[in-house]
Amino acid sequence: MSSKKKKYYVVWQGVNPGIYDNWTDTQLQIAGYPGAKYKSFKTKAEAESAYGDQYEEHVVKKDKKTPVVQEYDKSIIEPNSITVDAACSGNPGDMEYRAVETYSGVELFRKGPFKRGTNNIGEFLALVHAAAQLKKEGNTKTTIYTDSRTAMAWVRNKRVKTTLTKTKSNEILFTMVARAEKWIKENPIKNPILKWDTKTWGEIPADFGRK
Cα torsion for 17, 21, 195, 117, to the nearest 10°? Predict the structure, then answer.
């Protein structure tokens, strides 16, 4: 018997606004819908009460230090999002990375393969590449998903901590890492970067499928 607790989803803005008792039906209302507004609730009563309110009353909080802070519901996949991932044949080995649109699976970019790289370096470069591309487009709303906590930490700390040895064959990777570190120090990332919940959602859409 499943121990997963049931949730109710309120769709304020989507194909058919309303209250849904499963994520599959909810996805049909928000996937690809521009500006979709939705949130999950633990009980049907909470969902019904929230549906009578404004969306902003449930996803935005205010305090004295921070005028407006967006609270992201980590239990559901953001419809306006992309995912990044890396693949490495060996450790170190031939490494490549890419980004795809979360729902459509359309590939946005793919780089590599690079000689004597690591998966963590690929994940880091993919995150920075995605953030830089979104900034170039003037897009600060799209969420970036990754399944690498290490890459998220490196981006957060603006520094890569790798034990990879620099050689002539992977010199280009170290140049790319240095360039990426410099970029994130000079360009605050405004797009949300969230951890992909592999256990709940399955493999990240940008996965290379080589497991």
Answer: -100
Q: How many C-alpha atoms does 18 have within 13 Å on its Cβ side?
A: 11
- Give the residue among 88, 85, 83 at the shortest CA–CA distance from 105: 83
Query: According to the model, what pLDDT value does residue 211 have?
Result: 54
Other Cβ atoms within 10 Å of 84 Cβ, number: 31
From the list 85, 89, 90, 92, the residue with the least C-alpha distance to 108 is: 85
Residues 10 and 23: beta-carbon distance below 8 Å: no
171: three-class secondary structure by DSSP: helix
Rg (CA), the chain: 19
Q: In what order do the strands lie in the sheet with 107-117?
A: 107-117, 93-101, 81-90, 143-146, 193-195
Asked whether 98 and 82 are in contact (CB, 8 A), the reply is: no
Residue keyed to tokens 């064959």: 169
* Average predicted confidence (pLDDT) for the chain: 85
C-alpha 150/C-alpha 106 separation (Å) is 25
* Average pLDDT over every residue of 61-76: 46
Of the pLDDT bands very low, low, confident and very high (cuts 50, 70, 90), residue 46 is confident
CA dihedral (46, 52, 53, 55) in degrees, to 10, reads 80
Helix (H, G, I), strand (E, B) or coil at 181: helix
